[in-house]
Amino acid sequence: MHGNTLWAGHWLWMLVIAIAVVVPAWRICQRTGYPGWLGLLILVPLINLGLLYFIAFSEWPADRKERQDG
């Protein structure tokens, strides 16, 4: 009977972990010149790995803008 119930704090803990992961990913996306909402993709399994590889190996818009300005 207890197997079907979730601990009440489970959802709160999931929210805390999600915030702890999404906020840095959001900031990284913004600093590289991509929209911050791409950081939400870090919550989707397998897509999160794709996001990390995309950010790591693509040319960042922020770098392009910096080269044009200076």
UniProtKB/TrEMBL annotation:
The chain crosses the membrane at residues 6-26, 38-57. Keywords: Membrane, Transmembrane, Transmembrane helix. This is DUF805 domain-containing protein. It comes from the Bacteria.
